[in-house]
C-alpha cells in the first residue's frame, strides 16, 4: 500500500464582473467551473499557468506554483493581515489555506475541506501518534478512530466535497 499526503493550497477568488456558473456542484459541471476559476484567478493577478489539482477545483499542488503565483499569494496574505494602521499584524498571519489530500495507491480518497490549512499536517501526525481525540481537516471533519493499529476515517456523517468513499481504512504504519 502506497500512502501519500499531497500538500495543496486553496486559491479561491471571486471574479468581479465575472458571472459564476449557475450549475453546481463543481465536480458535476467541471468545464463551467474550471473556466470561471481560471478567469477569476487571472483577474486576481495569478498567471495563466496556474493549474488546479483537479480541473474544477480551487486546490493547487504546492510544488506546481510558479514563483510569480506564490508571490501573489504571499502578498495577498500580507495585505489581509494588515491592521487599521497598515502594519502587518503578525498574530493574524498563519498557515496558508489548503491542506493535504490523502492518496492511497494512486487514488485521492480524502480532501481538505473548508477552512483547512497547511498547518493541519499536525492532525495527521497526531493520528500516527495514536492521539485521535478529535481530527480537524476543515469542516466537515471525518470521524477518526484507531483500533488494533488500523486508522479509520469515517466521512459518512456529513457531505464532503468532493464526495468521498465514506470509510477509509489503513494501518498507522502505512500512514
Most strands sheet: 4 strands, antiparallel
What's the end-to-end separation, in Å? 10 Å
Query: Could you name the ranges where pLDDT drops below 50 across 5 or more consecutive residues?
Result: none
* Annotation field: number of helices: 3
What class, by secondary structure content? alpha+beta
What letter string, H or E per element, gives the SSE order?
EHEHEEHEEE
Radius of gyration (CA) equals 18 Å
> Per the principal axes of the C-alpha atoms, what is the gross shape?
globular
Question: How does this model look, in words?
Answer:
By secondary structure, this protein is of the alpha+beta class. Helix content is 21%, strand content 21%. The strands form two sheets. It has a four-stranded antiparallel beta sheet with strand order 2-1-3-4, with no helix packed on it. A three-stranded antiparallel beta sheet has the order 5-6-7, with no helix packed on it. Strand 5 (143-147) and strand 6 form a beta hairpin.
Amino acid at each position: 500500500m502506497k500512502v501519500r499526503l499531497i500538500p495543496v493550497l486553496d486559491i479561491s477568488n471571486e471574479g468581479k464582473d465575472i458571472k459564476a456558473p449557475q450549475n453546481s456542484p463543481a465536480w458535476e459541471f467541471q468545464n463551467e467551473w474550471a473556466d470561471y476559476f481560471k478567469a477569476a484567478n487571472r483577474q486576481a493577478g495569478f498567471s495563466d499557468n496556474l493549474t488546479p489539482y483537479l480541473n474544477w477545483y480551487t486546490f493547487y499542488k504546492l510544488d506546481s506554483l510558479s514563483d510569480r503565483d506564490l508571490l501573489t499569494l504571499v502578498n495577498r496574505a500580507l495585505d489581509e493581515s494588515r491592521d487599521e494602521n497598515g502594519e502587518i499584524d503578525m498574530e493574524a498571519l498563519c498557515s496558508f489555506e489548503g491542506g493535504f489530500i490523502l492518496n492511497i495507491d494512486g487514488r485521492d480518497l480524502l480532501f481538505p475541506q473548508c477552512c483547512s490549512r497547511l498547518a493541519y499536517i499536525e492532525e495527521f501526525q497526531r493520528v500516527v501518534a495514536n492521539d485521535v481525540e478529535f481530527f480537524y481537516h476543515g469542516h466537515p471533519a471525518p470521524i477518526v478512530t484507531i483500533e488494533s493499529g488500523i486508522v479509520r476515517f469515517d466521512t459518512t456523517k456529513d457531505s464532503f466535497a468532493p464526495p468521498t468513499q465514506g470509510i477509509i481504512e489503513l494501518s498507522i504504519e502505512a500512514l
